[in-house]
Structure formats: C-alpha cells, structure tokens
Amino acid sequence: MVDLLNEGDLSSFFNLLNQVDDDFSPTLSSRVDLEQYALKLLKVATVFGVYKKNQLVGAIAVYMNDLDSKVAYCPFIAILSNSRGQGFSQLLLEIAIAELKSKQFNSLSLTVRADSPASHLYKKVGFLIVNEFNYEDSNVKGLKMELKLL
C-alpha cells in the first residue's frame, strides 16, 4: 500500500531514514541531522511511503513547490534492504510522476551515484543523464538525471 505521508508520520519516516542511512555514500547522517531532515521533507516536499504489513518499508520525497518553472526535484528515494527487488522503487516513482503530470510539471530531476543499481531503474523509467560530477569532498562519481514530463 502506498500513502501520502505527513508530519504525523515523523516517527516512522525518521526510523526509515535511520535504517537506510548507511545505504547512501556519503551517509545521510554525515550531511544532515536525520530528524530535522525528515521533518523538513514532510513539511516542504511531497512524500509518498510504501507499506508492507503495516510497516513503512520505503519512501520517495519530491519537491513540487517551484510553480513558476514547473521543475521538480527528488532529493530522496529509498527502500529497506529486506524489501528490495519487489518493485517498490518503481511504484513510488510512477506515483510521484503521475502526481507531477497531474500538476503539469515539466520535468523531474535527481542525483544518483554513477555505480548505483538505482541508476538503471531511472534509465528504465526514462530519465536521461544531464551531467556527471563528483560528490563534494569525495571521489564518488554522481549523475544528475532528468525526466521530461510534457
């Protein structure tokens, strides 16, 4: 089941961030305070969560607040390791894309590590590589990817 998350879901969303923290390189917690980040996303972004047996096992956050340019940005998408390979990431992406299209957004962009398996999913969904870069203070290669919606 997929649901729109709000500030009342802070505890479960914060718990999810803690559980996936090490899946990011560099870790999320090395860049942000996880509880403040969870609250910021729930307040400012549109956050969809996917549940399995009433447990939040994944989420996507998308900033859909640039109503002038109609360009959206996805700062976060993650699935718990024991729930991967079940299509949850693609489902969350498809729901976010449908929401953006209904609001007549022009594009959705995101960044991902170049060696991440997630980059293959993004390409499969239709994202194109716009730019390659190194993450700040590291040799980790990243990709800026964009999906045209209109």
Termini separation comes to 28 Å
Give the SSE string.
EHHEEEHEHEE
Flag low-confidence runs. none
Radius of gyration: 15 Å
Helix content: 25-40%
Individual helix count: 4
Mean pLDDT: 94
Helical/strand content category: alpha+beta
Topology at a glance:
Blueprint: E1 2-4, H1 10-20, H2 34-44, E2 46-52, E3 55-63, E4 71-79, H3 88-102, E5 107-113, H4 118-125, E6 128-134, E7 141-148
Parallel strand pairs: 4-5
Antiparallel strand pairs: 1-2, 2-3, 3-4, 5-7, 6-7
Helix pairs in contact: 1-2
Condensed summary:
This protein is α+β, with helices and mostly antiparallel strands and 150 residues long. Helices cover 30% and strands 33% of the residues.
Structural commentary:
It is a single chain. The mean pLDDT is 94. A seven-stranded mixed beta sheet has the order 1-2-3-4-5-7-6, with helices on both faces. It is globular and about 35 Å long. Helix 1 (10-20) packs across helix 2. It has 150 residues and is α+β, with helices and mostly antiparallel strands. It has four helices and seven strands. A hairpin with a 6-residue loop joins strand 6 and strand 7 (141-148). The chain has helices at 10-20, 34-44, 88-102, 118-125, and strands at 2-4, 46-52, 55-63, 71-79, 107-113, 128-134, 141-148.
